Amino acid sequence: MTEHTYDLILRRGKLLSFDTDKRKILDIGIKNGQITAIKPNLNQSAPQEIDLEEKLISPPFVESHIHLDSVLTAGEPRWNQSGTLFEGIQIWGDRKKTLSLEDVTNRALNMLKEQAAQGILFVRTHVDVSEPQLIALKALLELRDRVKNWMTLQVVAFPQDGIYSHSQNKTLLETALEMGADAVGGIPHYELTREDGVRSIKRIFELAEKYNRLIDIHCDEIDDEQSRFLEVVAAAAIHTQIGSRVTASHTTAFGSYNNAYAFKLMGFLQRAQINFIANPLINITLQGRADSYPKRRGVTRVKELWQNGLNVSFGHDCVQDPWYSLGTGNMLDVAHMGVHICHMTGREEVNTCYQMVTTNAAKTLHLEEKYGIEVGKPASLIVLDAKDYYDAIRTRNKPRYVISQGKIIASTTPESTNFSLITAVFR
Ligand code: FE2
Q: Is 369 a catalytic residue?
């Protein structure tokens, strides 16, 4: 039997740099799950070959912020009528009393499949660890292992109700890390007092050091311009020098700070070099609910953070749950909303929004050796029916092919519209 040099060859794919419009039409050779060649006109043959007809090849989407434990529960046990974060927390408080391993596993797995079909191969999920049985955590840790051949899942231990608001929560958070959560989370703006919020950040950094884990904190997810835990996170990152391992999620209050304070803070953030995750779909709906007019947009200063050299990514956050009843998990929907509400409509800015759901998010998740279209890296990539990144965000189509670790795990046939009636009428 002939031993082939490649298991799969993708022919005539378009590779495009983010910072210029430089395009290259190349073949990609894949062997044993790895990219082993990227060249024009590979002259070998492989058992499986696909002519991409100059379609765009992209690194896969990275979902840097989602809550898989609560996905697909919208309306259970009731709908969020006020549309606020805090009514969402109350509803989830009731829903989580009915969690079972099967319930969480089934919903999360359905979501992961839907995400994979949409080109997402790396997911960071928060999981509520203020539920005393830690059912959702057990389900997602087990699922992390079950899906690892086609999806990389990172689990953040997230104390949804606060670390110090209930007596058992501090222990539950540490137990979650002992059980194997990849990162430690928090919610300082929802602790009972400012002092407890500051104390919670200190505790998060202690745990991250003790268990050698990443940090991802829900930070200042509120319109209150006095919510200033971001400066506490930045200071802790400066003191410990672990900024690249730290993420501040949401930071929506940053959009409401006065400019004098925001300017000073930006300098501290540049020293801290922490990562940021904004969730434009969710925060445009949850925030601004206490405003009359003008209503605030409720997102952090995405454009300014990017302009100041900080790493920013976009997350979906919620899909059909007590906080957001819509969504399919599509990261192009997220980037599309980011373009609008962050005023990122310039050509370079649109490309940057694409990076916020791909390469920037990969940096936040520390995916270094697993991510990117390079020889020697795992063959995880997507093929889009789009001319370029701008066109991908504009059209928001599902990828034609999703390849994970060398295997085609999903393909989608594009829809086509028949105009026969119009043609008949206007002939
Ligand atoms: Fe969140």
A: no
Instruction: Tell me how far apart the alpha carbons of residues 210 and 195 are, in angstroms, rounded to a whole number.
Output: 23
Rounded CA-CA distance 332/336 in Å is: 6
Write the DSSP symbol of residue 190. G
CA of 134 to the centre of ligand 1 (A): 18
CB atoms within 10 A of CB 19: 9
φ, ψ of residue 205 in degrees (nearest 5): -65, -35
Count of other CB atoms within 10 angstroms of residue 53: 13
Contact by Cβ (8 Å): 157, 173? yes
What are the structural domains of the chain?
A: 8-59+373-411 (2.30.40.10), 61-364 (3.20.20.140)
Average confidence (pLDDT) over 321-335: 97
Across the range 58-66, mean pLDDT stands at: 98
Catalytic residue of the set 87, 131, 191, 221: 221
Q: How far is the CA of 41 from the centre of ligand 1 (A)?
A: 45
| Dist. CA 217 → ligand 1 center (Å) | 9
pLDDT digits (tens, 9 = 90+) for 254-271: 999 999 999 999 999 999
Q: pLDDT tens digits, residue range 387-402? A: 999 999 999 999 999 9
